Amino acid sequence: MTTNGRRAGSRRGEDTGFRLGTGLFAVLLITAVAGIGAALIWQSRLSIRQFGWSFWITDTWDPVSGQFGARPFIWGTLYSSILALIISTPVALGIAIYIAELSPHWLRRPLVFLTELLAAIPSIVYGLWGIFVLVPWMRTLELATPAWMKALPLFSGPPLGVGMLAAALILAVMVVPFSSSVAREVLKAVPVSQREGAYALGATRWEAIRMALFYGRTGIIGAILLGFGRALGETMAVTMVIGNNPQVSWSLYAPQYTMAAVLANEFTEAADELYLHALIEIGLVLFAITLVINVLSRLLIWSMGRPPKARHVPAATLASPEVA
Amino acid sequence: MMRTWTRFVVAAAVVAAGATLAAQTMQINGAGATFPYPIYSKWFSEYNKLHPTVQINYQSIGSGGGIRQVTNQTVFFGASDGPMTTEQLDAAPGAILHFPTVLGGVVPVYNLEGVNAELRFSGPVLADIFLGKITKWNDPAIARLNAGVNLPATDITVVHRSDGSGTNYIFVDFLSKVSPEFKKRVGVGTSVNWPAGVGGKGNEGVAGLVRQTPGAIGYVELIYALQTNISYGPVQNSAGKFVKATTASVTAAAAAAASVMPKDFRVSITNAPGDDAYPISSFTWLLLYENPKDKTQAKVMVDFVKWALTDGQRFCADLGYAPLPANVVQLEMAALQKIKL
Predict the structure, then answer these.
(1) Which of B 117-176 lie inside 8 A of A, CB atoms?
(2) If you measure CA to CA, which chain B residue comes closest to A132?
(3) pLDDT value at position B229?
């Protein structure tokens, strides 16, 4: 009796220890994120003090005269990432649907392997491919653009090849394997009973797949946002093809700049204190924007995760894939 | 589980043994400029062959990083492609001395279809091109320098370095000397606010963009142009002569500057006097404390610098660097005596 009790007690102790141990790691993670934020703020204090909020809306970036503003970099980062998302989402979803739902069995594994291979290519390789292959294509395209299109602000500017469009395309290629892998897993997690139910009601294949997509929508949105996060932070490949010119422009043909790219370009040679602090503040801005986008996407997924009452099926909720 | 522990202990023992071995050799750490990295690493490995107990480690993290680290004394010596400013010197905990080690040049490269002749440039024309004021290849200013060349009316695409670099520093330093407007609107620095054009990352980024873009003009390190066989044009020097960059014409620029060399070697030799001097040339410097804390390391380092300035210079040719002229080496040998051992 007593031995049993003691054993039960020590086993309870094991549980508590386990909980505390894993809890410690969770706290460690939170501390690390908070620590990064604090370190960025501390290391950029000179620039924060000197420019304040105007740092976010100033267009000048002049290391020689000590004038720093982040607006062109913020613009370039968001614009290129959103464009990449617009281009990559249909492709990624198409690949995911084909692999998960339509492809013959023997083709599935090679396709999965190839998409994952794309994700494993180092970004400098994408960058070199961008410079030597993609950029000349872009120039050909830009030269072939008819005059009436060139008159639109979206396609204005000289045919340089490098610029926003090349950056968005290379980002899209880099993002596709990530979003499509996650989307594929999400589709695979949709219970067979759901599809069988749809077919039993006389649905066509297209309708059944739409149903599966709707069922896994939180996961799909999560997959897309994962790609967005990756696009925001991508550095090397973008630096090599975006043209590195800090300007705010709607034109897809205009050379622009991103936050990650200016950090990669200028950090090593920044010897002046204010200059260094301004660069670190760019890092802080990128950190803040990433944080806000993550919170917003969480909220979006959370609000979508609560289906209307009439559709609510407890079993389905239990099986709902949690991917983000 | 046991086996993992055993392995760990063995690994730890090996590391410890390695540390004891290392204690017998002299380790000196340095960091800084990327431009001289190939010759520095060659020097350090050659010097290690001559003196097996001396091991010098060098991290090519960029001139800015080198200045920062030597100021914070996290490395024994720094290296920079641009001389430290007086403010930066004042911020250091002790007096820092500059020692030029080798020379580099920057050359204009261009891509103009239908023109086989070598195009000639002058400082003011280059400045106006990079300011975005000259926008066509058949501009009268370019045509005047290139009489007899049939220049097309192609648009000029300006390509500059997007990353902060010594190459940038040398190029804008030259343009600022020859064009007051460039000095006022752009100025001198490792990174500047370019008024026109697109940015390529690194020499290869600039060269790649120039090669692909009809009508493009950019600038790369002389070494890079020599190694990759890119054609480049001669530039008019302060004596009015058009000089093509070679290691010899870069060294000539340094030799011409030696007569007016300041005591601390913080000198820009762009637009140097002399008929043979290539105008877009520069030293690259080692940064050493005048009164270093660790005297044993200091002694070894001074010996190394003496070797690098004399015997070490013969490695320049293979790697494409311009060697120091003899009169500059003499001045430096004298200056090395200032370091308190």
Answers:
(1) 155, 157, 162-165
(2) B208
(3) 81
The answer to whether residue A282 is domain-embedded is: yes
Q: Is A100 inside any structural domain? A: yes
Cα angle value A57/A59/A63 (rounded, 5°) = 120
Q: Taking the model in full, what pTM does it have?
A: 0.81
Q: Which residues of chain A are within 8 Å of residue B213 when distances are taken between CB atoms?
A: 139, 160-161
Residues of B in contact with A240 (CB under 8 A): 200-201, 205
- Inter-chain residue contact B188 with A264, CB threshold 8 Å: no
Chain A residues whose beta carbon lies within 8 Å of the beta carbon of residue B164? 63, 265-270
Q: Is residue A98 part of a domain?
A: yes
- A244 interfacial to chain B (CB closer than 8 Å): yes
User: Domain total for chain A?
Assistant: 1
Residue A258 lies in a domain: yes
Q: What is the pLDDT of residues A253-303, one digit of tens each?
A: 999 999 999 999 888 778 788 999 999 999 999 999 999 988 888 888 888
B68, B189, B199 member nearest A64 (Cβ): B189
pLDDT of residue A160: 87
pLDDT, residue B2, reads: 46
Q: The domain containing residue A99 runs over which residues?
A: 49-194+220-304
Q: Which domains does chain B have, with CATH numbers?
A: 2-104+282-338 (3.40.190.10), 108-246 (3.40.190.10)
Structure tokens given for B109? 């490269």
> B212: which chain A residues are within 8 Å (Cβ-Cβ)?
131-132, 135-136, 139, 161
> For residue A297, what is the domain's CATH number?
1.10.3720.10
CA angle A188, A191, A194 (to 5 degrees): 120
